[in-house]
Amino acid sequence: MPEEFQNLHISQHPLIQDKLCDLRQKSTPHFRFKQLLEEISQFLFYEASKTLSTRKVTIETPLENMEGEQLTREILLVPILRAGLGMVNGITQLWEGSRVGMLGMYRDHDTLQPVDYYLRLPENLEPFTVFLLDPMLATGGSAVSAITRLKERGARELMMLSLICAPEGVRAVSEHYPEVPIYAAALDRQLNEKGYILPGLGDAGDRYFGV
User: Fold this and answer.
1) Which domain, by its residues, includes 33?
2) What predicted TM-score, i.e. pTM, was given to this entire model?
3) What is the rounded distance in angstroms from the CA atom of residue 76 to the CA atom of residue 29?
4) Number of domains comprising the chain
5) pLDDT tens, 39-77?
6) What is the distance between the alpha carbons of residues 160 and 101, in angstroms, rounded to a whole number?
7) What is the DSSP letter of 100?
8) Active-site residue set
């Protein structure tokens, strides 16, 4: 992996790679695609969350008091609409206490640049651990724009989860925000002339929602 991609963490977990293989296949029906995307998102969240900080707390069991550990920050999931919603659906099954923001962006098919159309977040993100969610990190334009919005709202503990990355997207995020870690299941070869990841899996949103 290129030295410039030091913020990229690719999972080699056999279960993730097996599910990703099924996810990529053209013949996978959308209801199975939906299930697989949610399951892989859960695994990626589990791996990324190992870096979260905890604090000591005293609790009472049915038999006695003891010292346990709890997270120091609330978790805020911020999907880039619409495909990122699939990742939210998976992660909230694993960590039901997550809050969920919304960030609506689409990529202009002519310029390949991100266009904002919706933003719904807490006023101050400093108290949260923020997970930016987008199944495909392609050109990186939407990711960089999204990270900028989140940092403008005060996000300090921030990471990105993507199923599949293109080198171009990782490079864009690394150049603008090298401090933001990216957790992914695969780093693919390149983008085509339309900005789709190769070999990729097609349009994640279309395949997840079936339209």
Assistant:
1) 7-209
2) 0.92
3) 30
4) 1
5) 999 999 999 999 999 999 999 999 999 999 999 999 999
6) 14
7) E
8) 107, 111, 203, 206
